Amino acid sequence: MAAAAPPASGRVFQFKLVLLGDSAVGKSSLVLRFVRGQFFEYQESTIGAAFLTQTVALNDTTVKFEIWDTAGQERYHSLAPMYYRGAAAAIVVYDITNRDTFQRGKQWVKELQRQGNPNIVIALAGNKSDLASKRKVEPEEAESYASDNGIFFMETSAKTATNVNELFVAIARKLPKNTPQPRPGGSGIVIAGQNGQAAAEAKKGCC
Amino acid sequence: MYASSAIAARWLSVSDPGGAAEGDLDGGREWTPEALDDEWAELLAALPNVDEDRIHAALLGGVPDAKRPRVWLEFSGAAQAMAARPTLYADLLEQVAASSASGRAETAVHSQIENDLRRTQVDRSARGASSRGERAGGSRSGGEGTGGEGTGGESDESEALGALRRVLRAFAAFSPSVSYVQGMNFIASGLLSQLDEAEAAFWMLTLVVAERRVGHFSPTMRGNAVDCHVLGALSRADCPHLAERLEALDVTVPLLATRWFLCLWVSVLPHASLLRVWDALFTLGPSATMQVALACMRVIRVPLLAASDVGQALGGAKESLRATDGGALLRTALLDVPRLSAADLAAWRTRGQQKASEEASSLEALRRSRARGSSQDAAR
Ligand SMILES: Nc1nc2c(ncn2[C@@H]2O[C@H](COP(=O)(O)OP(=O)(O)OP(=O)(O)O)[C@@H](O)[C@H]2O)c(=O)[nH]1
Ligand SMILES: [Mg+2]
């Protein structure tokens, strides 16, 4: 919430940002903390993806994020491309108390670097930093993985709000601001035009 | 007894396009609660030989709460499936208990289920609503943004969680290739909110996942892509103008409809409306889901046409669905949108299947070409 701000000046840039990572690592919680300043002990599991927007004010510009918070369960993997397609930035989230989620995070980074937008800005977030006593992934390890792969890393806690705004602000700073209003393009699932049985009835329902 | 007048009423509302459309709250005949109750009793007794028009008319009147469990179970075929394999549910639970005692591989599935039990909030909105004297408006079943503190008694809650756990674990054991997929938790929880027996909920879930939503929960989730293509095509025929607008906004059908199909509208519609929709899904054939989806496209048409960017489009769509009256939605789905026969649906799905596999292979081609050109590989 603290990051929300009225436009600092006339220059507003809009970017698509996607969150990826294993189920229950805290993707929705990070977004909810950032957008609404809220946290819930039991956050509803995400199906498909949820969409939210939030703005970040930098010195003389405003960055508006169009955020896609995706479902983390492995089964939903095949849906992910339609959400990260054309994304200018991605936050890959893992849970510092669960090593498997770190491995899964690395796979997401790899997939984004291969199949995502070529100039995508990727952040790796080690979430649940408030649970330090249950830690299974050391920040040094994640940091060195991140620098080897040309992405940046932060530990966060959606629960305590630690580093949450900082994470989004850091991404906002890294995004290129030379071209005004970069609009993601590309081809996703286009609604198929067909002359079906239904066509006869179309008039009745249509505007 | 009521059949002929019900059919007559339906014909009236169909052949008189201007008349019953707006402001008419029953969309057909006026039902007294007693007449409606009798009609459902007759329909149940007449199964499986029931005229579809007669079901439509009764659905527009509504299913009495007390009859809902039987109506869902018997019309859907779940009751018959349960009767045919009376020990299956208990056997599955035993199998689950044995395998978790021996600490075998199911643990990943079980921990995913465990993670989600408390992250399935429709349960609270449904069960808690009447006892708290709150209208079942579903305000708690909202997506992100709602959440939070448990309400209701502690033991009530743990009992509800236990039933949800058993149903999901039994299903995962029943169908290891599908196993547990998020979305099922919401469907199971919605079923449990109405059915007293967890066993009945298990059988309904089995039916929904294995027969009605074929391929939606499979490893590739191809069924979802296929149905999104079908919905896209039908919706374009229904309103070409809307389809153009969506393209201009870069809003694809899967962005709108994935949750509809994977959760069957749980926490998309208010709870009371959800029940009306499920009444139709479970009493009618497989086309009903698509007709409801098409009706939803009509509901969200106004905000979508007014939207100037993706955010407004998706936000507007979500809000309008969250305020949708179940009776009105059913009327649109059953009376206004073009009726889709089972054969039509199958034909559309064949076409959708083609599109979906084309998409999958072009994505795969991209993956391979990028992988070849990439030196990141070695970095791991
Ligand atoms: N202690 C602690 N718990 C957290 C934190 N962030 C999230 N959680 C909890 O972890 C659980 C999962 O959080 P979600 O935000 O729903 O996780 P997700 O990544 O969106 O999960 P999916 O939607 O299933 O992909 C919730 O119960 C949260 O309360 C955190 O920073 N610290
Ligand atoms: Mg989530």
From TrEMBL, chain A:
Mind listing the GO molecular function terms for this protein?
GTP binding; GTPase activity
- Please verify whether the record's keywords include Chloroplast: no
According to the UniProt entry, the coiled-coil residues are: none
Print the keywords alphabetically: Nucleotide-binding
List, alphabetically, the InterPro entries matched.
P-loop_NTPase (IPR027417), Small_GTP-bd (IPR005225), Small_GTPase (IPR001806)
* Name the record gives this protein: Uncharacterized protein
Q: Which organism is it from?
A: Emiliania huxleyi (strain CCMP1516)
Automatic annotation (TrEMBL), chain B:
- Start-end of Gly residues biased regions: 139-153
Q: Which PROSITE patterns match?
A: TBC_RABGAP
Full protein name: Rab-GAP TBC domain-containing protein
This entry's Gene Ontology molecular function terms read: GTPase activator activity; small GTPase binding
Region (Disordered) location: 101-158, 351-380
Instruction: Tell me what organism the protein belongs to.
Output: Emiliania huxleyi (strain CCMP1516)
Q: List where Basic and acidic residues composition bias occurs.
A: 113-137
Q: Which InterPro entries has this protein been placed in?
A: Rab-GAP-TBC_dom, Rab-GAP_TBC_sf, Rab_GAP_TBC_domain
All residue ranges annotated as the Rab-GAP TBC domain in the record: 62-285
Q: Which Pfam families match?
A: RabGAP-TBC
Domain of life of the native organism: Eukaryota
